[in-house]
Structures are given as structure tokens and as C-alpha cells.
Amino acid sequence: MPLHLERIEWMPSPPLVPDDGPIDFAHLNRMTLGDADLEREVLALFSAQSTHLVDAIGALPEDARALARASSTAEAASAINAFAIADAPTALEEALASGSDPSQRLAALREAVSLARTAIGAILRRC
Q1: pLDDT, the chain, mean
Q2: Are 77 and 67 in contact (CB under 8 A)?
Q3: pTM attached to this predicted model
Q4: Rounded CA gap, 123 and 43, in Å?
Q5: What span, in angstroms and rounded, lies between the C-alpha atoms of 65 and 79?
Q6: Does residue 99 belong to any structural domain of this protein?
Q7: What is the extent of the structural domain holding 40?
């Protein structure tokens, strides 16, 4: 019996982790149901919160490990698909827990926050 083969045009799958910038603005738009005011509010709060986290942990206080672990910034970053920020507190906590030098992890967190804040600033200035 001959096989019936037909050509199917497949649509490429989207990437598992968007790589077009520090924040997935399309995801944010979906999460805020297209409400531009809510989107701006979420971005402004996230920007302030992430700056506070970097300042607090950057001083490497006695409780830096607890700060990294308890950080709601990682959860907020996941909500807007800012994965570099979402992963950084965990990586920093692991470095602190193991007693290794946290400077590279802290630098990665600072860089990720800086990139996200630049993107957020551009969006907020347009509004």
C-alpha cells in the first residue's frame, strides 16, 4: 500500500526564552491585558524594586544571602520574563552559601538590572 504523504508547512516554535532584550514586552502586555497604564506602573515598580535589591545586596551585608533568597525581585522578573534578573539572585545566593567570591554574580545582577532599567526608562519616556 503506498504511503500518502503531503507537505505540511510548519510554523516555527517561539523560543523558550525570548532573547530580544532584557524584558519580554509582549509577555508584559499579555499579563497586563493590554492596559498601558498598568504596564507602566508594573515597569516603574519593578525598576525601583530591582534598584533597591542591587543597592541592598551590593553592600554585601551580613544578611546578603537571606536578602537574595527572599528577594521578590526574582519573582517579579519572572513575571515580565526578565530572566537574567530572575536567575541572578539565586546564583548570588549560591555563591554566598558556598563561600566563593560573589563579585562575578553581583556584577551579573547589576548588569541585568541596568539593561532592564534602560529598556524600562525608554518605554516610560515614550509615554
Answers
A1: 80
A2: no
A3: 0.71
A4: 9
A5: 22
A6: yes
A7: 25-126
